[in-house]
Amino acid sequence: MHKLFQRLGLFTTLFALVVIVLGAFVRLSDAGLGCPDWPGCYGEIVVPSSEEAVLEAQARHPERALESDKAWKEMAHRYFAGTLGLLILVLAIIAWLNRKDDEQQLFLPTFLVGLVVFQAALGMWTVTLLLKPVIVTLHLLAGMATLGLLCLMTLSAGRKTSIFADKPPFGLKALAFTALIVLIGQIALGGWTSTNYVALHCPDFPTCQGRWLPELDMDEAFTIWRDSGVDYEGGVLSLNAGVTVHFMHRVGALTVLLVVGLLAFRCLLGGYSGVRLLGGTVLLLLLVQISLGIANVMLRLPMPVAVSHNGVAALLLMSLLALNFKLSRAS
Q1: pLDDT, position 282
Q2: Alpha helix locations (H) across 44-171?
Q3: Taking 60 as the threshold, does the pLDDT of residue 102 lie above it?
Q4: Short-list 140, 112, 154, 156, CA closest to 13
Q5: Are 29 and 303 in contact (CB under 8 A)?
Q6: Which one, of 261, 249, 252, 147, lies nearest residue 197 by Cα?
């Protein structure tokens, strides 16, 4: 049963990555309100298609015209997210059935069930609160947290081996943990940038609005809780506030490049074979991610590039978690 748990955990982790990428596609294609209700779509479990069903749907929700393409994108994401929740529930059931096994984890699978319930609530509030930025950002972060914990759970289910014969090099564990925290902060900034629709508020690069330091408005840019009952689709920030959010995301990207890049080079050039491959993976993903961020600006946010930017962020998070996990197991 332990092998089943490990294999299902790996599958669920990869499935969670798919759900995150699909969620990014829905958000970036402005389909987050494709269905104005939850958990169904215009009162149905599938998108209304017949003429009669469409008329009934519009009568229920006259405030938002039915756009089938956007509605199907949103429902596809809900179907996938629901399947992910069921997979996590099965993992928790297997864990409790196998709880007498000394190597069986209980806390993470159980905690993940609670996290998925909270994530579902965030999905509901995303719709009912009309894409309020703080809720949508939390929805993104909870999805990343689900992916990260699934990754750690799957790694922990493997063989418990040490990668160093003695203690890891001085400061490497601390640097790896710092890099992870910096990346999580940058993912949060990226979510805030996306959910406030300010990804193109600095249309030039490397300058922003033609200046190295544009005029900033930190108060409005990072006001977390805003009025309810407002439709936030398309964004409501002033130009200066939007520029501030985008600019701070660039500052975060530079910080990630320096900290994570230093970690990757230490792993690659430090002569520690146990982390060399992971260090190379982290460096490759980092360079790809920075390139995608620049391409988003220069190419005016093309959908494949923007979605890939989210997906590579998730892969980079998984790689840093794996590196921290390996270092934590070192003797």
Answers
A1: 97
A2: 51-60, 68-97, 107-128, 133-156
A3: yes
A4: 154
A5: yes
A6: 249
Rg of the chain over all Cα atoms, to the nearest angstrom: 21
62: preceding bond cis by omega (within 30 degrees): no
Query: What values do phi and psi take at 212, rounded to 5?
Result: -75, -35
- Residue among 74, 103, 220, 233 flagged as catalytic: 74
- Whether residue 63 has pLDDT greater than 90: no
Question: Would you call 33 helix, strand, or coil by DSSP?
Answer: coil
Instruction: Enter the tokens of residue 121.
Output: 């609530």
pLDDT, averaged across the chain: 94
Rounded mean pLDDT, 295-301: 97
- Asked if 261 and 285 count as a contact pair (C-beta separation under 8 A), the reply is no
* 3 state SS of 208: strand
Q: How far apart are CA 31 and CA 303, in angstroms?
A: 13
126-130 long-range contacts, CB within 8 A, separation 24+: 126/32, 127/32, 127/33, 127/35, 127/36, 127/37, 127/38, 128/38, 129/228, 130/33, 130/229, 130/230, 130/231, 130/232, 130/233
CA distance 328 to 331: 8
Structure confidence at residue 322 (pLDDT) = 96
Would residue 103 show up in a list of annotated catalytic residues for this protein? no
68-72: long-range contacts, CB 8 A cutoff, minimum separation 24: 69/31, 69/34, 70/29, 70/30, 70/31, 70/33, 70/34, 71/31, 71/34, 71/35, 71/41, 71/42, 71/47, 72/34, 72/47
DSSP string covering 307-324, please?
A: HHHHHHHHHHHHHHHHHH
Query: Please, which pLDDT band fits residue 170 given cuts at 50, 70 and 90?
Result: confident
Separation of alpha carbons 74 and 268, rounded Å: 42
* pTM confidence score: 0.95
Residue 271 has pLDDT above 70, yes or no: no
Confidence of residue 159 (pLDDT cuts 50, 70, 90): low
The vertex-313 CA angle with 263 and 6, nearest 5°, equals 90
Contacts of 169 (CB under 8 A, 6+ apart): 266, 270, 272
